[in-house]
Amino acid sequence: MPIRRLPSSTVNRIAAGEVVERPASAVKELVENALDAGARRIEVQIEQGGLARILVADDGGGISRDELPLALERHATSKLSPDAAGDWDLMHISTLGFRGEALPSIGSVARLTLTSRTMGSDAFSLAVDGGDMGQAQPAAFAGPHGARVEVRDLFYATPARLKFMKSERAESMAIAEEIKRQAMAKEAVSVALDIDGRKVLRLAAEQPGPAGRLARLAAVLGREFQDNALAIDTERDGISLSGFVGLPTYNRGNAAHQFLFVNGRPVRDRLLQGALRGAYADFLARDRHPVAALYLDLDPRFVDVNVHPAKAEVRFRDPALVRGLIVGALKHALAGAGHRASTTAASAALSGFRPEQGPNPAGFSAWNAGGWAPRPQSPASFDLPGVSERSARYEAPEPATYAAAPELIDFPLGAARAQLHETYIVAQTRDGMIVVDQHAAHERLVYERMKAEMEAGGVARQALLMPEVVDLDPAEAERVIARAGDLAAFGLIIEPFGPGAVLVRETPALLGRTDAAGLIRDIADDLAENDAPLALKERIEAVCSTMACHGSVRAGRRLSADEMNALLRQMEGTPHSGQCNHGRPTYVELKLADIERLFGRR
Q1: Residue 492: φ, ψ to 5°
Q2: Residue 366: which pLDDT band, with cuts at 50, 70 and 90?
Q3: Which CATH entry fits the domain spanning 338-352+398-602: 3.30.300.130, 3.30.110.70, 3.40.50.1000, 3.30.1540.20?
């Protein structure tokens, strides 16, 4: 078959298939162009999931009349410049878009109109219909400068692509998620999104910096994230990491609320999920996921953003350094949180209380939003005939109650006042009350003590009577052997045994009789995915957690006042004591104002 040169229209449509996979991809490209143009206000409108119409308007620098046709040509961009030798450096990318493919790719499969005005000039527009470009025409434009891109009938020129689109609702949701990611990356830019004429998103510009960034994250992720976020701000070897992560007790059932931004670019990277999993391994069950928004800034030469046509992925020159920075920063922040638990625990507890809605109790006239409204009456009307004062009292067994020194209520977890059901400690603080699950709290204390002892003395090892040979893929074996020193710190002693094989001589004593071959294979899988031997660490921690569970104060044991207060003081001085080993809260704090609202006093 002879070799043929493809026509430019076909080339553009092939490029569109790589860059514009769905309406959300087109919106992403257009918003990134606006941000690169210096926009401080971006408005997005879509209709029918973006397939019928997309409009992106900004107040950026705009495009001059002479450059409008050039902006719609492939591989024409204002975001790259040649160096003194005339070379175009693709390893020093400081903008979001740089390929020069977005506008011509969209124009090749849709009807696109680009309208723009630069400062001090008139506005002009240029239309492209399925790849056919018209002439620049004078146009109306609101504002002194900026650009407006309108896309109609997306993929009409490639009808086969339309068959692979999801429902209008699904496409609209994908666009909304993309806009939110871009908004989280640039807190100083105001963002508006309308879907089918409805105002869906309105985000005002925030002040640049951590406070404004947290306010923007709260507007996107919810106010609860702001109340339960830990700040991250660290730097190592020229790489800076900032952002916010949620407390372990503020978690989700999937990883959809984990965001990574590299040099202001929202990216999807498995490195982040692996780092978060490693940092939170002590605190969350495997089916729970932390919430995080992390911002990584580094020299563009140390990250390749050109590995994917849609620029959705990046590749780091030193991924181990980046992962280590993220894990270290997160662990430091979690340790600094001390015994703090999420505010959502108290909210969940309060939501469990419901006012009684049974028959109208005596002395109440009507039900309203706050409960039964009292009917005016004299004090004598509360007397119940035939019922003595003693028999009218509730005669349930009294809980164990204790007196405590008044100054103890000034401690963060207050003074122990009672033990309920020989399981829960009730403490009084200056402005509220604390309910502690004694078993879960003491389990965390024992676990943290065991970890500290293990780090101080190292992990005890047990020699195998017969060293075990584990066969692996040669590349897997090489990765495992390269981390032999790290594995030795966990009590696993290995050495190479020919190509594609690993010899296991000693295993961690904590694991008892273990499947050495299965352990090595799990470690090989973790190294391939996360560049860290998580399997061994998690197995040891699981054993420590089990031992801590059996060695802790059990539910059903009555504690003295001194024992309860000692437990509270230990919790205050122990990192991570606000959650058990599975991410559940060890205590719930109820503020006095919340309790008063519960009883209609506020």
Answers
A1: -110, 115
A2: very low
A3: 3.30.1540.20
